[in-house]
Give the backbone structure.
Amino acid sequence: MEQYVIKGGTPLKGEVEISGAKNAALAILAAAIMTDETVTVTNLPDVRDINVLLQSIEGIGAIVKRESRNSVKINGGTIRSVTVDYEYIKKIRASYYLLGALLGRFNEAEVALPGGCDIGTRPIDQHIKGFKALGAEVVIEHGMIKTKAEHLVGSHIYMDVVSVGATINIMLAAALAEGSTIIENAAKEPHVVDVANMLNSMGANIKGAGTDVIRIKGVEKLHKTEYSVIPDQIEAGTFMFAAAATNGNVLVKNVIPKHLEAITAKLLEIGCTIEEYDDAVRVIGTRDLRSTQVKTLPYPGYPTDMQPQIAVTLAISKGTSIVTESIFENRFKYVAELARMGANIKVEGNTAIIDGVEQLTGAEISAPDLRAGAALVIAALTAKGFTTIDDIVYIQRGYENFEGKLTSLGACIEKVTSEKEIQKFKLKVG
Ligand code: EPZ
């Protein structure tokens, strides 16, 4: 089992290049199978969830050619099955995008019920509501979601909750439906816009992505494209908080600063200095980080995927902070691990009350999920002494070469697989 071993206390300094957005790329790869022509996707992050999805796309008969670490060519012309029932697909949430993509293209799809990080119950009723509105039947049987339509017909759909996944899934299916679809109360996240742009580059007719009303005019067929995925706002935000928490000075490159506004605002509030460039942001930390209040909300609010990273930073900031999680009900599991490092956090319902401490201390901890895992790495980078983190497989789902990028910023971190390697690391870094 792979673990991270980290020696804390070094301020992060230098430059880091952000990879493509995992959550945009997952939907874009699903969209790529909606034509029988070849689609090229570049700026693809080389992370576990992406590789699992590519395997399952290959598994249903598409031709998947990895051109390089960050680009892939997909040809869906050879797809021979609309059933995605692989052990591994259940482990990733985005397997549900294959439902929308296959339903749109073949009027039929069967996909194993999605898993993903355990951060709440994560219902998919809004996805199902959308497919049904387009004229499909949907049943759940033996752990599979099965959906089928005579033919899909555009519809007017009001989303009861703002859902990134459901918005994208309906957009995928509706792109090839007959007539017009209107999605109201749509999610506005940058990756929703990216998927719409990608589909439009394949010949779809989607307008309004990025607002809460998306209008889709169905087209007969989609065609080849070459598309570059947007930068990952959450990876960028994670490095921004890592710079802040370690009192560092980091230039975070290949980002869209507009997508980072909610994160930047909070960093300024707690006392950091931010310099904004066209496609980069510099974060300069301070020894005197201050407390704040934050509530996670759909975009353009503060992202739930950045909640653990800010909480960890506030755990070593002066004063009492309040963090409210309003999207997922089970996203404070890292608090118990953080307490073992000396943090003073009390969770009441969906709120964490954080009393900042001077410094955390290294401990043996586990990553409970992807973003919490990354946040615990930040905690370890600030802590006194050594920390080992188990279950880093979660972190690898969504961060490309996390330890490599941190090392290039001066962090003392290594991926290890045995106690012997941990001891070797400790001897090396002293
Ligand atoms: C996406 O999950 C991301 N995953 C998540 O990222 C992210 O946390 C989340 O959006 C919010 O930004 C992928 O893109 C693969 P939602 P998703 O549907 O689509 C409720 C990460 O760390 N809801 O926007 O599953 C739901 O319970 C991951 O990279 C329904 O009630 O999230 C939640 O409270 C973790 N019914 C809220 O809506 C539905 O049918 C938002 O969920 C769908 C969702």
Observations:
- The two ends are 24 Å apart (CA to CA).
